[in-house]
Amino acid sequence: MTDLKAKLHSLCLNYVQQKIDNAGEAIAEAQQAANNETKSSAGDKYETGRAMAQQEADRNMAQLNEANKLKVVLNHIAVTPNSTGVADAGSIVTTDNGNFYIAISAGVLQVDDGSSYIAVSAASPIGTQLKGKRESDEFILNGKKYRLTGVY
């Protein structure tokens, strides 16, 4: 299970790094667009183009900041086995309605053996339901009943 946990953690890190790379590229492109705006006789057009490029850079900077926060969260999650049997950040939780990795919201993660796990934030609705639960515990979310079959 430690190998699986390390693999899921690595997939989450790759997800975050991709977000960081994409935001960095978009910031560079917006800066390049702002630099390429040339002042013409229509001064308002120049100012509008630069303002739009700045807004785009600001949006991408916010995305970069969010991705960096996710990376910090991941860096604080241990990939060691869960010896307590209680679901918490870093836990792999199997249920009768899917498998979950409590870390960050990164969607479905496909593992080499063909299985899939849904990476969820501990603060998400399902993450808050999973936290503190043990094997055989049950909960209902959005009208759907979940029964934990394992906590690792």
From TrEMBL:
Instruction: List where this protein forms a coiled coil.
Output: 13-70
According to the lineage, what is the superkingdom? Bacteria
Q: Which keywords belong to this entry?
A: Coiled coil
Please indicate if the UniProt record lists Coiled coil as a keyword.
Answer: yes
Protein name stated in the entry: 3-oxoacyl-ACP synthase
